[in-house]
Every structure is written in structure tokens, then in C-alpha cells.
Amino acid sequence: MKIAFLLYNAYGIGGTVRATVSLAGALADHHDVEIVSCHRTADRMCLTPPGVKVRALVDLRPASRHYAGHTADLRRPGTVCPHDTVHHGPTPPSALGEERLAGFLRDTDADVVIATRPYLACFLAEHGRPDHLRIGQEHATRDLHPVALRNDLDAAVSLLDAYVTMSAADARAYRRVLHSAPTRLTSIPVCSPAPCAEPSSGQSRTVVTAGRLTAAHRYDRLVDAFAKVVAVHPDWTLRVYGRGRERRPLRRRIDELGLHDNVLLLGARTPMEPEWAKGAVAVVASGTEASGLTLVEAMSCGVPVVSTDCGHAPREIVTHGEDGLLVPEEGAVEDALADALCRLIENDAERRRMAAAARRTSVRFRPQHIAAQYHALFTDLRPELGTRSRGPRPRAVRPDADGGLPLWRRALERVGLAGLGSPVVVGCRVLPDGSIVFHIDRPTLTPDAWNLVLRPRDRAADDVVTLRLRQRTAGDGRGLQTALDKASWSLAEGHWDAFVQHVSGSRSRPVLAGPVETARLLDPAARRPSDAGCTAWIPYPAQDGGLALRTWRRPAHAEVTSIAIGDTVIQLTGSLHGSAARSHHYRFRARLQGHQDRAFDAPCYVDPYGDFDVGIPLATAAEHHPGGEALWDLRLSAYGGPELRLGMLTGDIADRRDVHTFPAAHWSDSEGRLTLRTYLTPDHDLALSTTDAVLSPRS
Q: What is the number of other CB atoms lying within 10 angstroms of the CB of residue 178?
């Protein structure tokens, strides 16, 4: 049969898009499946289902001819559809979009059309033809919708053939209100594929959460709860993945609580599985976890979950005490979350047991199982659909086939390969010893005929690393792979870009980043100081979609692990890496950038294990402040020995500057007020900014 999914914007990474792409890909194994996106906002989809055709109705990329109209004519009064009253953002409903969507529904030969959000369900009810099966999906819950939207949606659902919720409880809520409607009101759980990353080792001291940074997801109370956890377990970290309007308020709250070392705002990631695998525990503090997709994704990566019992999905997915913990949504939620997190943090055996159970639970949400339930729904509503044979599997339409400059073309230009072949998707995994295995899971290259090449971005093109791509050994699955062995290679500091090249050197193809698995970089053993110094290799997806590697190589290094802001000092703690570093006594030195002769010192205490402690006196910094804004390089200076740069190089983050931000310190005296703030440079060296006041005349 032919199935069409209606998505509002298939080029995002939200839960509705992720679940729809997974379901569409599973159904495409036996049916002709198409995703119809009302809008196109990027060159390519972040998630592209194999065997699924993709079309966009309105192109809203900045270079598109529709973009200007979108920002002007398409927003004129009277053109916005009234159904989706809660929608705001860069893609509101428009006259052009509705005209094209109505045209699609009028002309499509699909047997089944599935609308994935309330606006689209209302539109399908009004414009869909009775000869195709019209199905709506509820990826939120009925109670979350505003009253006006709920009334419109109730009327529309009554005109559809079926309406599918993600939880049985939500289906019951719809049946209570629409008990006389002819519509099939049922529930089918959310769809989540097998993870593309190795399961969590459970060894990191990391708690992970993910979702849009909105008020409804209550990250504010999670931060407050984690402050209670840090008071008992100061070596644990909370990672928050996502973007949204609450980022700034969260950043302020983190700084107010002094949690800048323990709570990291990491932005959005796609795919998310390699990030879930970095956690020993996952947490959901939302007041509205409607579909439960976040829970299932974390559990599939072998991470036990702590979740508020916020409505329908969590209690239908998580079995309390078996694969996770549920805490009450009412009352002292912060205390309950903190207690549940501490319970798993403090009990390794229970955490491992729940992690194994979580992976078993996640299997029932696999796409093939959910697709089978949808197929049963289709054939139950229209028995004749079950007898239709499937045509040849359609060739997936490349999302960048109809114009614009694809990201991979930009990657080609960046490494000097413009005009050459189509890209190859290469994923990678960091091993416990820091080596990196690169793999191509769907190879279009001949084994032993191509090399993976790493080229330094800012140095001579001759200085490259060449690795032969070979067939995977038995048991590793089909595909190609190669390894960058840390014991065999010494890479200079900087950024390295990847591409593939034929062994003859005559042909090259760009690389797009597949899953980048760096969880092992968070294992405690990976962060311990080494006698060889600090040699960090961090693979990462580049902004243009390519695969890149950030490297550091310092035989002697001072790694900062904590920055505390006090009333009179900025306190730095860390550890010395390299036997050469640990054989000296040090003083702290701040040197004014561009003025080698302008500096001030402070004591540095180093214990027998190489752990150091520095207090930067605010009064001393104020005394040496030259006026205006001044930037200072921070070093540990040895008596008759090396000068070490203070920095933050270890871990898994290739660019920390937006992640590790530090609160300001303030110093006031009779001559004025000075603001001092530490920050990271592009090379992850620690520096100091002093601004706002001239405290005394300087020459």
C-alpha cells in the first residue's frame, strides 16, 4: 500500500520528527512510503529514512524564492490558519502552504495519510478525501492543548478514520469526550530504533537529560535538584542537551548556585544515542513527558532513568524499581529527584541491574514492532489494503536534489575537493585507550581500494594521515573500517578534516559525519594524568556536516578541573599532566596579552600527586589592571623550568567555549569597581578578562 506522512517541518530534530522517520523507515520495508513536509528549512534532513521518498511543499531556506514572501506576503492578515493557535516561530501556517497542502491531499494516490500534529490533523479532516484512510497522531496529550485548540481538534478527530495516541491513558481521555464519534480512538506506543552507538558502560560520573529548553520541561527544578546531588557527590556532572528560550534563565540559575563546573548546557545533538551512552543515569524532570520518546531512547542505550511521574507515558514505559525510578509530580519534586538520583549514584549494582532491564524494555518500542501495529490498524479499518502487493522499493529522494548548496558541497570546498564525487557517511568510535575506529556501515567503496585521509585544516596539505579502509572482520557486520591507533600516531595540535581518497590518488570523495561515539573519553581512567603529558583526540561533526578531529599534544600541561568564584579570590584547582610537569615547583602568573613585561604572580600549591591549587587574588588583579578591558594569559611558571598553559583539554568536547562559561567576580574599593571573568580561548587555554574600571592612575 502507499502511505504518506504529513510533517510540519521534517528538517528539524524534535521528537515527532524522530519518531515519524523511524516508523516511516520500518513501514518502507513492505510499503511505498512518503514523507510530505509542509516546510523545508535546511539543505538536508538531519534524519533521512532509507527507502522513503521526501517532498517539501514550501521551501523556506534563505536562498529560496519563497523566503522573502514567507517573511512578508505569507504573513499578511487573514492568511494564517486558525487551527494551530499555539504555534509560534519561523514557520507559521501560510496561504501558500495551505494551498499546496490542499493540492497534495486532492491529488495524492496514497492509500493512507497520517497527520502528525493537531494543525495537520484538522487540515486532513477538512481537505482529505474519503477514499484514502485518514489517520491523525497525538504526539502530545489532550490535556496539554489550549481549550480553543482542543475544541477544534475534537471536531476534526470526529471526521477522521482513526486517531492514534502514544499512551493508553490518553486514548481513554479522548474516548471519554468523543464516545459517540465513529473514529477509531486507539493507542500505539512511540517508535524508537535500535541505537546507533554502543551501550553505556555505566562508568562515567554523568547524568544526562535532553529535550527542548522550555518552561514545560522544568529544567529549572532539575538544576535545583542537582544542586542537592552535588552537595553529596561533587564529582558528578549533569549534561543538558537541547535548545530553547529557557537557555539563558538556566545559565543564570546555574551560576547563582555555583554549578558551572557540574551542569553543562550542550545544545542539540543529532543523533542523540552517542550522548545518551555517556550517561550512567538519565533523568527527565518534565511536567509534560507526552510520548515518552526521550525515556525510550535513553533506555535503549542501557541507561536507567529517573523520571517524574508526569502524566501518561512515563508510568506506561518505566517499571519503578526495575528499569528506572519514578518520582511524584507533586510536592517536593526537587527533593524526590535528588533522592532518586543519589540512590542510583550510590548503588552501582542496582544501577547496572536497572541498565540491563532498561535495554530489554526498549525492545518493544523497536520500529518493526510498532510498524506491525500500524499495519494491523490499516487492514482492520480497510481489509482490502491487506491484499495489496507492494511495488518495487522506491529510491529515496535526496533532500538536496532540488537546488541550494548542500552542506557536503561546503565540506568539499573546505578541504579543496570541490567538484568531485558524492559524500561517504563515516562514523567513528573512541576506544578505551583513546584510539579511534572509523567505520562505513553502508559501503559504496571497494575494500582495500580507498583510504581515509585526515588533513590538517591550518597547515600544509602534505602533512596528512592516510589510513587504508578494509573489510570488517567476521562478527563486526558488513562494511569497511580503519583505525587511528594512539600508540602509533602523534598528531600535531589543531583541527583535522576527513575525506576518502582512492589509493591511486586520482579520485577523492568528501565525508559526512555518521554517529560520533566519544563516551569512552568520559571514563575516569581516560581523564587521569599521564606521565606522557596530555594527548587528546576528540572527533566531532563539523558545522558543514563533515567529520573532523580536534587534537592537542602537550608533553607538560596544567589541566584545570574546577573554578570557584569567591569574594576575594578566583580559586583554580586541577592536575599536572606529564612527568616533566611534575618535577618542578610553580608560581601562578597572569601576563597581559601583548605586553610581556606586564604581569602579576600568586602562589601555586602542588601536592605530591600533581594536583594543584591556585588562588587569584582579586585585589592583586585590580592593582595591575591597566584600565578599560584587559585580557590576561594564565600560566604556571616553574623556577628555572617550563611555563605551563592552564587549560581544559581532556574530555569529549571539541569546542568548550559556549559550554564552559564561568560567573564573574567583582572587586570594589574606594577607587572603583572591577569585573573579572575567566574564559576559554579557541585552544581551550584559560584566560582572564578584567573590565569596567580604572582603579588607579597607570602610566
A: 17
